[in-house]
Design goal:
By secondary structure, the chain is α/β, with parallel strands linked by helices. The protein is built from 10 helices and 17 strands.
């Protein structure tokens, strides 16, 4: 019995060349698309080839701030959203994110409690983030807890979260709290330089006049989640676009680890400050949080940039991810430990992660399980932070 032709045999060379030639336009198009995505510096008004690195605006002399990450993405059929949003979150098998099913907020699981995509149960039940009454209540609670403002999760100019930010701006001035967009589109690479620049310009167009937008020396502040997912050349293009149109933002980048930042000493020259979204990335791996924050603060200082650490009460995302990640609240000890680590690096601002990320069990907003315990703790730690010597 014949074993058949050897691999690579039996295909005429002309056929191979034809296939390769046929693929050449595809490869060229892919390369051109990637170049245009990352650095569209020609043929478009407002793009310049000038250097994007810029001098950071100093935070020295400004009041210390405690800012919590706020998620305006929840919706109910009886609220402005007109349908369930996020309370019906999918259950995802990780790491492939295969959908196993969805939570059903119409289904009772206990008397007075329904199937929500939430680790803990919100005090008062599910709510709509754009409900004016709820917004006013959240702002009052935040002020009473010693917060200075919210970093509002924002997923681009066309997202529903953009509506949530606008709704918060309508009421923030009544309480004296400040707001700043927390830009987290999931994967900035897909938006590219052109998409990110357009988003930032949209923010300025829509909200640049808002007196409640957090500013440093008159410059509006924007935080970025996972900013390392956009290539440096793309960030250069974004900054060139803004500079070419006479616009300036105070940009606060997120980095995944001290090791990542240490390998890229010039990364922070594109930004005004650096932060981490949550201490959970260190605590879940058993790392010394104080050491991690000290290293990040040192690296930021060597680049002439401030470091903004994060604190969190805990983390448990098993309601929405399988197998999920857990950092136990330990009766409040985890929150205290993260605050101690944050204060040890004498930061200008501290980020509370989070106000209401119910999916991941990191919220300090009142819940059935914890009441207002973490609001009280936040107020105490915030007062200690402001009393500390700079």
């Amino acid at each position: 019995m014949s074993a058949g032709p050897a691999p690579g045999r039996g295909v005429p060379s002309w056929a191979v060349r034809a296939v390769l030639l046929g693929l050449l336009p595809v490869a060229l198009a892919a390369g051109a698309w990637r170049l245009e995505r990352d650095r569209p510096t020609w043929g478009l008004p407002g793009w310049t080839r000038s250097a994007s690195h810029h001098a950071a605006v100093s935070l020295s002399g400004l009041p210390r701030l405690v800012l919590a990450v706020h998620y305006p993405w929840y919706g109910t059929p009886w609220g402005p959203a007109g349908r369930w949003r996020h309370w019906n979150h999918a259950r995802l098998e990780m790491p492939a994110e295969r959908i196993l099913g969805f939570h059903d907020p119409r289904r009772a699981v206990l008397p007075g409690r329904f199937d929500l995509g939430a680790t803990h149960y919100p005090d008062g039940g599910p709510y709509d983030s754009r409900d004016p009454g709820r917004i006013r209540a959240q702002l009052r609670l935040a002020r009473a807890a010693g917060l200075d403002g919210f970093l509002v999760s924002w997923w681009g100019r066309e997202s529903e979260e953009a509506l949530g930010l606008a709704a918060l701006f309508r009421h923030a001035g009544d309480t004296g709290l400040v707001l700043a967009p927390y830009y987290e589109t999931g994967d900035l690479r897909r938006r590219g330089a052109l998409g990110v620049a357009a988003d930032l310009e949209s923010l300025l167009d829509r909200h640049g006049h808002e007196p409640s937008w957090l500013r440093v020396a008159g410059v509006p502040v924007v935080f970025f989640y996972a900013s390392h997912r956009l290539r440096p050349v793309a960030w250069d293009a974004v900054l060139s676009r803004l500079a070419g149109r006479g616009r300036r933002l105070f940009l606060v980048a997120d980095v995944p680890s001290p090791e990542w930042l240490a390998r890229r000493p010039d990364w922070l020259q594109r930004f005004d400050a650096v932060h981490v979204y949550t201490p959970v990335v260190f605590l879940a791996r058993g790392r010394d949080l104080g050491l991690a924050y000290t290293t990040l603060a040192t690296l930021a200082r060597s680049a002439g940039r401030p470091f903004i650490p994060a604190v969190a009460p805990g983390f448990d995302d098993r309601q929405v991810r399988v197998p999920g990640t857990v950092v136990d609240r330990a009766g409040g000890a985890t929150y205290d430990r993260s605050w101690q680590a944050a204060l040890s690096v004498h930061p200008p601002w501290i980020l509370v992660s989070t106000w209401n990320e119910w999916h991941e069990g990191s919220e300090i907003e009142p819940s059935v399980e914890h009441g207002r315990r973490y609001l009280d703790a936040t107020r105490e730690w915030a007062e200690r932070f402001r009393r500390a010597a700079p």
